[in-house]
Every structure is written in C-alpha cells, then in structure tokens.
Amino acid sequence: MAGRRALGRQFGWLWAAFVVSSYGTGLRFGAFPMIAVLVLHSGPAQVAALAAAGRAVGALVAVPLGPWVEFRRKRPVMVAMDLTRFAALLSVPAAYAFGRLSFAQLLVVSVAVAAADIAFRAASGAYLKALVPPEDLLVANGRFESTTWTATVVGPPLGGAAMGMFGPVTTVVADAVSYLLSALGLRAIGGTEPRPARAGASRLRAGELLEGWRYVLAHPTLRPLFFNTIVVNGLIMATEPLLAVLLLGPLGFAPWQYGLAFAAPCLGGLVGSRLAPRLVARFGQHKVMCTAGVLRACWSVGLAFVRPGVPGLVLIMVVQFGLVTCCGLFNPVLATYRLDHTPTDRVVRTLTAWSVSSSAAIAALTAVWGLLAAVTGPRTAIAVAGVLLLATPLLLPRRGNAPLETREQAASLT
Question: CA dist 238 to 186, 235, 300, 306, 384, Å?
Fold first, then answer.
C-alpha cells in the first residue's frame, strides 16, 4: 500500500489538478484580510466578519448543492466549480484595477468561493471512489493530504513575499489562474462517466437536503467520527486568530517569526500522510484512526504556555509539529474510512453535510472564542480550547465496522 504505487493516468491528471489548485490556495493564504486592512482600511470587526460570515454563508449556500451534485456527472461539476472560483477571484483584481473594490465584494467572493469549495470536495470524493479501486483509496487520499500540507509549507511564505513585492492582489490573481489550470487538468482526464440514476422521483425533493445528515447520524461509527471532527476542527481553528493577536501583540513576535512558527511544522503533515498507508497495513484502519484521533487532541493546550523569544518560538513549533503530524495521519484514514462506509448514491450528500457542518461549526466557535478572549484575554481562551480538546477522544468510536462493500459481499453469500 505504500511507496510509489501507480494509480493510472486518469488519477495522475486528477492529482495534478489538485496540486495546482492547492498551491494557488496556499499562495493566497491571508490575502483577503490583508486586502481588507491595507486597501479598504477595515477594522478588526470587519476582518473577523469577513472570515466568519464568508465561511458560514458559503456553507448555507452549499446545502442544496449536495443533492443536486449527487445525480450528475461529477467531473463536469468539478470543472464548473473550478471555473466559478476562477471568475469570482478574478473579479477582485479587476475591481481593484478600476478603483471599485469594496468590502461587500470581498464578502460576496468569500461566500462564492466557500460554497464552490464544498461542492467541489463532495464531487471529487465521489469521483475518486469511482476512479480508484477500494484497496488504493488510502494511497490516493494520502497523496492528496501530503499535497495539502506541502502547499501549506511553501505557499504562504511565497505569497507573503509576492504581496510585499507586487501588491496585495497578486496572490488572488495566482489563485484564480490555478483554478483555471485545475479545470483544464480535469478536462484532460478523458474517458466517459455514466450519469447517476435517480431512484424514485425525478425532481429534487426538500427531504433530500437532509439525507446526508440522516445517513451520518444513523451510522454507528460515522456518527461519533462526525461529531469528533467537527468539535476538534472547530476548536483548533477558533484559536488561530487569538494566537495571531497574542504572538504579534503582547509577546512581540515579528511577522516572519509568526509565519515560520506555523509554516515549518506543516512538514509534519507530510510525514503523517506518508506514514498512513504503512501503519494501516500493519495495525488496521480503525486502530490507526482512533490512535491518531487521540494524539491530535493532546497538543494544543501547550500553546497556552508560550513565552516571548526563542523558547516560545521553539515551543510553538514543537506543539504545531506534533499536532499537524497527527492530523496528517488521521485525515487520509478518515477520508478513506468515510468513503468505504458510504453508499455510492449518497457520497456527495454525505460529504456535503460533513463539510457544511464543519464550516458552520468553525464559524460559530471562532465567534464564540473571540468573545471569550475579549472577556478573559487570548491566552486564557486558548487554554480553555486546549482543555476541551483533551476531552474530544471520548467522541471517537470504540470499534469499527467492516467496509460497506465487504458487508454487502458477505450478505450475498448467506
């Protein structure tokens, strides 16, 4: 399962498209808040609203996309979402060039990109399940995960340098072009994709909007994993703005130190994603997933003890490296487990429900932790999130189920 297993030409194009768009997103990291502050002279409240509202409203817009995408060919949907993100992002430098850029436009673009992100991820998960044999899903997801973390290491520093040299909208242009190149890569995959058949009524029904949540909440192992990932991701992401305030404010870290503290440890994500196939082959999917799920909850509380200077920088990098390594191991195993345990005709709705819930939870917890920090201070709020994360392993499933296809095969033999 490990090593450089060949997954075919079609997967190669799919992976290449993912690589291009991931690096474009990495380059654009932090661009919208910087544009809001430097170009539009927005205050902290507006910048926070841009981050939270874009994600929350984008998630709400994406809810009806799940059932719509489920019964359509996935590759054309992915291309359409890439082109949507290309057009939305390109509108920002266009408006900037003519002196017409506004905060409202940034907010609308954030919503459009967030909704397209969710629809794209759901469609790509279903497409990957049809493209790659079940025994190769973990290898494929591991490669996607390693690409994400590599882009996170390389993209933000290069993006920051590019914005400093060429202006704040430079990386937005680069990200827009990356989605256009991704769409071209998806078109190059070729082959035919059968149109999914809809059972029952031919038109979308209101009840189908909730089908993804119904399936997840009725499943004995996906349900606890669902709540675990939502809470963990929400608590981790909610403390990111508070860390920025703490490190760049009272502790006096320079911007380059702040960037280094969070970019360099992302190499741990590459390590974890590369180890995932080997560890699963040796210890089993469920054991590896739960062990990594427990370990990733143990690191964040250490951020509450950060101090100024080199010792504080080292502490942050060690904590972040441990956290990211565990996440890099957990994420591809979870993604594979989720695909293994979801019927083909519900993959898109299930993944959409998962992404929508995660985005909404991150937005809500970010707002709550901002209020908590205003009352108690950022260090205390970070400590509270770290302590709560220590309890999240209680939400992990105690035992795993066999993959859906394995159970179906066993049932057919009885």
Answer: 34, 5, 12, 17, 11
